[in-house]
Amino acid sequence: MMLQKKSVPTIVGFWTTILLLWTSMLCAAPDAKLIPFWSNASNESNSTTIDHTTWQTILDHYLDANHPSNINRFNYAGLKANATDTQKLVNYLASLKKLDPRRYSKVEQKAYWINLYNALTVQVVLDNFPLKSIKKIGWFGPWNKNLIEIRGQSLSLNNIEHGILRPIWNDNRIHYAVNCASIGCPNLATKAYTAANTEKLLEKAAKDYVNHPRGVQCGNRKLQLSSIYDWYKVDFASTNNDVIKHLLKYAKPNLAKCLHRYQGSIDYEYNWNINLSI
What we know:
The protein is mostly helical. Helix content is 48%, strand content 8%.
């Protein structure tokens, strides 16, 4: 009996440890690891542009960029109720699916992948709407689910972000561009990304996020950052000081002053509630 009683906490402790490890692996941010098929191939002599006007039309009709929270909200209910516009989104994704992005210039490709990621995210939310959080889709979210096939390659949201965008462009502003349909996420841009506007949109997205409380909150005794700066610290040169240097690049004067003098530890927070227009 004594042996049996002693074994119970041991067994409970073992399975608790396994659960914690399993949860941490599921929640950990994937490494940026290039999918070889996509390599760094491009055709810089190709001046052809990819048409994203349908995506722009959807953004114009269903993205609320004037919400009092200063967080862009999306009217998923309105889009889902409109069969014509829902089909437009399906058709837009189908049009991207037909292309081989490697045949375009690198700047055209970058816009292509960002728009594809964001449009797929809206689509997967619509497919499961209504819901309170994108993390309620599947096990801890839809990011590992294959959502589209391009050139015979099945792709998930994680494939696009961590297997293509991050390793090919090595641009930490990607984290401000891809939207996870959540309050804590950087804004879904009001403009479809194009070769002509990508640089401007990335800079605006970074500045908007850094200067919003969900991105950075700085006080005399506390510095709270979005968990993005923890999950992807490696993209911001890996140390807390490096992250702060990045933030200072975009911080407005009052925030910059606080960041310069702050000496304490850093807390991280993220709001996974859906960025629903209400």
